[in-house]
Specification:
Shape: globular
Radius of gyration: 21 Å
Order of helices and strands: EHEEHEHEHEEHEEEEHHEEEEEHEEEH
Bound molecules: flavin-adenine dinucleotide
Strand content: 25-35%
Number of helices: 9
Distance between the termini: 17 Å
CATH topology of the largest domain: FAD/NAD(P)-binding domain
Oligomer: single chain
CATH superfamily of the largest domain: FAD/NAD(P)-binding domain
Number of domains: 3
Length: 378
Amino acid sequence: MDYELVIIGAGVVGLAVAARAARSCRSVLVLERHQDICRETSSRHSEVVHAGLYYPQSSLKAKTCVAGRELLYARCKRLNIEAPRIGKYIVALNLAQERQLHDLAERGANNGVDDLSMLSSSELRINLPGVAATAALWSPSTGVVDSHQYAASFQSEAEANGATFAFRTELIGAEPIEGGYQLLTRNSGAGDNPTPFPLRCHQVVNSGGLGQDRISQLIGINIDAAGYRNHPCKGDYFRIAPRHQHRSGPLIYPVGKAAGAGLGVHICYDTAGGMRLGPDASYISGPPFDYRVDASKRRAFFAAASPLLPWLKEEDLSPDQSGIRPKLSAPGGGFCDFVIKDEAERGLSGWITLAGIESPGLTSAAAIAEEVAALLEV
Ligand SMILES: Cc1cc2nc3c(=O)[nH]c(=O)nc-3n(C[C@H](O)[C@H](O)[C@H](O)COP(=O)(O)OP(=O)(O)OC[C@H]3O[C@@H](n4cnc5c(N)ncnc54)[C@H](O)[C@@H]3O)c2cc1C
């Protein structure tokens, strides 16, 4: 065998898995089709460290979010990476939303988020001035993180423990062989017909994000029967004019959309204090994907955000970036959990699938890596 373990994908999750596995695996290789880490979903998100209140009790999303956020904060503290716990208000604007807010608080408590509190009406007036909120939930352990530094720290740790990174290297074929897998790769920067390059390994982690379903097909998994087909769901962001930067404070989310494809358009901050609104959620076709932001959505973003941000003017908004969620649920579908699975029952022992790693995948990354390590027995 050329390698003990091959990880496909150098997004934040693949990197966390590489760092964790390299502590005890003799030889780890990470394959990434782009020229560097985090060139897809892992650089196109809100950088929010979620507390873990949105997900059904006992789901992998709940479990890895709650565990992952504490691992994230501890790692960032140890490595001097910015990850302030700026907190988050979740706001109800009417009685029906208030009921949703109470349900959310209960769900959070069941998930082990033990620091939530409802704001009193005087706290509402002081903390959310001008907002016509009937109630708000305060989540002090929500934060933001310098996500690039966080992801890069996993790459450094993996490399320090001997892992190898092959960039511009795309997986194009896979088959089981005695004791492991033969993978076929090609140089994705070398034009139309680069010479394929084979390699052999004992175990594989498919951490391909938006490429997960294609990779699963390469090894012969029926993605519809398995429920692994990605339903890409795009989220656009609009930037708020920098003159408002002094208003930077806790995150503010609506409660109303919590059950939909996203969490509803909300205000988010990067660690440099930049302010954005987003992301919305619309199912799209692809790959290939169109990451351009539709500037004509400005009015809809303003309408969604202005009840929460009374000082906002429509002309404060300009198109920013977008990201695409690798959802396992089709439009109108219900909750789908993360998939973290050894495919032994399909005759593919040692082939680990990570599917549907949408939000809170950034927050959960280090805990997902622990789950994978347990499956790999490393
Ligand atoms: C709009 C949006 C907002 C979000 N906000 C948050 C948030 O605030 N907080 C939070 O916790 N999470 C958030 N998330 C979720 C988070 O961004 C993702 O869960 C996380 O980035 C997923 O990381 P990943 O490593 O699984 O996937 P990716 O970052 O997509 O990495 C997969 C990698 O695999 C590579 N790859 C694919 N196929 C192949 C192949 N055949 N050969 C070689 N390489 C291949 C790709 O090039 C890519 O680099 C958000 C997501 C979106 C879309």
